[in-house]
Amino acid sequence: MNSASKKAILVVSFGTSYENTRKLTIEAIEHDIADAFPACPTYRAWTSKMIIAKLKKRDGLTIHTVKEALEQMLLDGITDVIVQPTHVINGIENDQMKADALSFRDRFSSIVFGNPLLTTEEDNQAIVRVVADEFRNMNPDTALVLMGHGTEHYANTVYAALDYRFKDTGHKNIFLGTVEAYPALDSLLRAADSFHPKKIVLAPFMIVAGEHAQNDLAGADPDSWMNRLSSEGYEVTPVLKGLGEYPKVRQILVEHVQQAMNVSV
């Protein structure tokens, strides 16, 4: 890379309209990445145009789409881009993000991508350790039920694989399902019922504790996971803490940036 080159990192998130969780998750990830790579300017983009529009109207907050962020990077003289998503899996959002970024490939010297949170076997092993450690003080007869997002994309298989991996590594009381795909709550109810937990701790398996966590997981609607589980007779405690709040999760994403930089050298 010649001396005139200028490298920067674009951190891409789905986004959230909930300010509190944004600061604790997305902004915390961005800060950790910026701190780890002080020589590289860090930029932000979100993929949800609906949330971007909502924040613009409600808060007067302007957040770039991927294409808008890349246009700004060009104006700033950036030549080489490392794109690091905060997406959990290589799903639809990540595919679209890559397509948007690669439409600029002829305008930069290089564009490389860091992996989403769960990409490699090492990532999957790491997240099991992180979650198990986060809830290590939980009573053994309490079940932890995690709510992932889920997708029709084939990458959705990672959720069932992780659910199995929790059990296979000795965490018989940890269950992972999704709100929009498989394993659904009905599957988890059957599995939890066979475990006979006295209590259930309910937590999002998503980067932010946003709309899904507030409504689908712990909302007042009878169909929320909390109310469905409560109606089955379980004592349910929701923990509205996004994965982005876990320092070790943020560290995985920092490592993914480093891996992408190593590829781009």
Structure, described:
The chain is of the alpha/beta class and 265 residues long. It has two domains: 130 residues, 3-Layer(aba) Sandwich (Rossmann fold); 122 residues, Rossmann fold (3-Layer(aba) Sandwich). It is built from eleven helices and eight strands. It has a four-stranded parallel sheet with strand order 2-1-3-4, sandwiched between helices. The longest helix has 18 residues. GO terms for molecular function: metal ion binding; sirohydrochlorin cobaltochelatase activity. This is Sirohydrochlorin cobaltochelatase. InterPro entries: Anaerobic_Co-chelatase. Keywords: Cobalt, Lyase, Metal-binding. One of its GO terms (biological process) is anaerobic cobalamin biosynthetic process.
Based on Cα principal axes, name the global outline. Answer: elongated
* Euclidean distance between termini CA atoms: 7 Å
CATH C-level name of the largest domain = Alpha Beta
| Total number of beta strands | 8
Oligomer: single chain
CATH architecture assignment of the largest domain: 3-Layer(aba) Sandwich
Provide the helix percentage: 40-55%
Enzyme class: lyase
EC number: 4.99.1.3
Binding site for Co(2+): 149, 180, 212
Protein name: Sirohydrochlorin cobaltochelatase
Compact description:
It is built from 11 helices and 8 strands. The chain has helices at 19-24, 26-36, 49-59, 66-75, 92-102, 121-134, 157-168, 185-195, 211-217, 225-231, 247-264, and strands spanning 7-13, 42-46, 80-85, 110-113, 142-148, 174-178, 199-204, 235-238. It is an enzyme of class 4 (lyase).
